[in-house]
Amino acid sequence: MPKRYMAIWFRHLVTDWLMLGRPQLREVPFVCVMPEHNRIVVTAASHRAEAEGIFAGMAAADAKAITTNLKVLDAIPGKEAKLLRQLGLWCIRYTPLVTVDKPDGLLLDITGCAHLWGGERGYLKEIVLKLRSRGYDTRAAIADTAGAAWAVARYGKVTPIINSGEQAGALPDLPPAALRLEPEINSRLHKLGLRTIGSFINMPQRELRRRFGELFLQRLGQALGTEDEILTPLVPPVPYTERLPCMEPVCTAAGIEIAIKKLLEQLCLRLQSEGKGARKVILKCYRVDGKLVQAGISTGRGSHSVSHLCRLFDLQIGKIETALGIELFLLEATKVEDVAVLQEKLWAGNPGLADTALAELLDRIAGKIGPERIRRYLPAEHYWPERSVRPALSLQEVPETAWRTDRPRPVRLLPRPEAIKVMSVLPDYPPNMFIYNGRRYEVARADGPERIEREWWLDKGTHRDYYAVEDTAGQRYWLFRSGHFDEAPEWFLHGFFA
User: Fold this and answer.
1) Domain 1-28+70-237 - what CATH class?
2) Which run of H or E residues covers position 378?
3) Residue 143: which H helix or E strand, with range?
4) HSE, side-chain direction, 13 A CA sphere, residue 495
5) For a disulfide at 48, which of 29, 67, 94, 141, Cβ 3.0-4.6 Å?
């Protein structure tokens, strides 16, 4: 499939934006000005001002002399870049590859996207009309190269869509400035009488290089397709993405459910063919009012099961606010992992954590209470108890060391030991009573001590002497004394046994 590009030109970017916030400016010619080299110059002119003969780069004094009712506004530094970024992010609904083309345009890689809108003509019409409805004077063109699309969008007078392989035939009648050349080169070409691209397009490259430099040939080659042009996307695209435009805005939960299922069928088919499974999927809904709403799901292990992922999204549909309706759905698998082919055998025993049904159950529970509330822990190589466990990244993660079973360890370990008050017969004995959170606990029996030395290579401090104690109600706790008994030690509660 040949590459296809769209160039979008905002002819009055800043002045259009100003008129959106101040409608009264539509009735008068106005310009934006900024100091430059000890003079005030025009940086942007409205459509009415241009009709009077005023243009960007003109001295403000000359502009005021042309018309008596000219309104002059101070330019906002960097506003063009911010507006282009906002418009570029808006265009991502039509293609994931959007590049800002300063000072007044965007370049879109639309390869494989136009068919979703019924072809390139419907695609271009959709984007241009939407941008114009937002208040921006817009022109656009489509071609095999970004350079040719840029040239036709700004200087073309016939069709805005150049058929594949025909960019060479669309350029000859355009001025040299359509090649994105430096002003000095444009001026030199004009002086030599080369006022169209066709007047030099067939000249020997050696002569063109000698007279106009390497950049001139590069720009010409980029427009014709003989030189590659690398575009830096505004947002790095997600590799696993599916789009679904809507003929009519979707306002109901049933419509959203149908859209999700259709997108998941396409996404999972691709994931399955590549041996991948989705760990995190985000649904982006572009509404008619221009706002973006989204919902996301995550899984404990990679999955390309349409039914399972649909059930997870069913829990999120109620959170999607449709307002006037959704015109485009975008599904992105932002995190994927390799998935092994399941081999079902009659003699297969208990699969444990590898059981697909267990992973799907955990995903459904996570969808209701939140994935952050479901945890799995693995042992870590540390003596200090609070460092001896770590959260697992997935169900498939294998521990690097085994759990310690030669000593009693609590089922619930507090992330940080909590201070308690104790009373004991002798300083080095286990406590007879302790007070925790204002409540008194009588100790019926105790086991210990177990001394755990501090990891001196990580921090400094005293050792701990741990006791497993049981109160008169049968509840068991893990307590420790910090330091030697003859040094006014402190006591702490660190865990609860089952």
Assistant:
1) alpha beta
2) strand 377-379
3) strand 138-143
4) 16
5) 29
